[in-house]
Amino acid sequence: MTTDRDDLMAAFAAVVAASGRVRDALVGVSGDAKVLRECAHELDRVADRLVDSALDPGEPDAVAALTVDPRYGIRDRGLTPRHTITGGDGEQLFGVTTIERHFDGVGAVHGGAIALLFDDLLGRLANAAPRSMARTAYLHLDFRHPVPWGRQLQFFCRVAAVEGRKRFLEGELTLDGQALAGAGGLWVELRPSAPVCGSAR
């Protein structure tokens, strides 16, 4: 049975997926200025509709409020490569990602997109319940082979060590068993007095 929550999350995911198709299409767009101007006009109309339905300042975030944890719920806005976590626990997680064409650099996925992916995945694990909130202190990446877009890749992340407020995490991105990129980072638990940034709206 479909619930209001399921319907809202599915609708939000559909909008994000459609915006991803637009970005993918822009990578191979032709030089037809007329078509581009028409598309810009249509996208402006879409943006206006979304702005009209935006939340008022202070209003609860409708989509995030429907997740188990509003801070780390499933709310992929398309800023990071799409990925699916298929398993894990509080000490590790793993899954798959197929990085979209619009993240292409020069014949391979842009390194910044890989950094975004690892920061998101390792951050989710660093903040997995019952841990209190932590923020990224640093993130180091090791690029071993070019990362292709459009191929299903596997990722594995784990908590390497915990020292007081410090949480050290590691991750690896592979293709058919070959390591393409690795990451290591430090997340530091917030002090009780630390401010938590809210919405910019």
Automatic annotation (TrEMBL):
Localization per record: Cell projection, Ruffle membrane; Cytoplasm; Membrane
Organism superkingdom: Bacteria
Entry membrane topology: Peripheral membrane protein
E.C. number: 3.1.2.2
Ranges of residues in domain Thioesterase: 107-178
GO biological process: fatty acid metabolic process
Pfam families in UniProt: 4HBT
Keyword hit for Membrane: yes
Molecular function terms, GO-annotated: hydrolase activity
InterPro entries: HotDog_dom_sf (IPR029069), THEM4/THEM5_acyl-CoA_thioest (IPR052365), Thioestr_dom (IPR006683)
Key words of the record: Apoptosis, Cell membrane, Cell projection, Cytoplasm, Fatty acid metabolism, Hydrolase, Lipid metabolism, Membrane, Transit peptide
Family, per entry: Belongs to the THEM4/THEM5 thioesterase family.
Protein name, as recorded: Acyl-coenzyme A thioesterase THEM4
